[in-house]
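Q: A reviewer asked whether we had any structural model of the full assembly, not just the individual parts. We don't, so I'm hoping you can provide one. Inputs are below.
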Amino acid sequence: MSRTLQKTGLPLALLAAFVLCLPACSGGPEEIWQPETLVQEQPLEGAKFTETLAAGKLVLTATRKVRATETPVERLYLHHTETWSDFDWDSFGLVFWSVLGGIVSVGLYFLFAFVVFDTTKDEENK
Amino acid sequence: MKRTSSLLLCLLLCGCASRSWTEATDDVRPTGAPREVIEDRPLAGEFFELRTDLEADGFHIAENVNTDDAGRVQIDLLPPALQCLHYGHDVKLELYSFEEEKVVYTRTLTAEESRGVIRECSVQAKLGAELRLRRRSADQLDKLIEANGDLELREQLEAIRNKVKLRLEWE
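A: Here is a predicted structure for the entire assembly that you could use as a starting point for your response.
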């Protein structure tokens, strides 16, 4: 009997220990290289304004001559995944008593419906 | 032991949580040759100060304006036009660039152009458009209406006056 218990209990205890060690075992981040274009702009001269006059408003369009250098590159992204045990006794107590309360409620329903107010007894007495 | 282990495992599994996130780094590696182009690009998101001449009584217009994504900046010419007609001389409009720390654009608004601006604004006012002015510009409008002998211009100014809404100091 004790051997059977050891056989089943030990793996479960080890599994529990494994879950506890999850943060330490989460490993390093995953490296992902994603393509993108690096743009570097160097202004060559000052801003130029193009005027448009309409309906009492002056609309100026500002442009500037620039030297743009576009370099196709790959950027390194690190994808982190973290797992940890978020257990606390408050939430456990809430779930435990909710489940227990549910079971007791259903039990009380059947107790009152079929034992305390048993209609079949009245029919039998007749 | 079995029950205790099972209970402990259940408790731990119930409370397991995980999160994942991606972090961009500064590490880059080139994958091709750089391409160089020279072109005119719109100046997006630039901030300027619109200024007009400083008058003897201390009046001048100073408003912050900025360009949109297409590099456009819209300037309401009604206040400078009122300044021009009220003080009786051409008004110089200047755009001061906060980035370059200098005046990057200058334009003179003549009396003739100011009358054109008043005419266009009066048409919009008659069509129901709301015109927003600072208090001092609105005062100039009132004084122009009172002092002006030109009936056509006076009528246009009155049409504007009916649709003026004051711009508060913080606006």
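A: Points you may want to mention in the reply: DSSP finds four helices and three strands in chain A. The longest helix of chain A spans residues 89-116.
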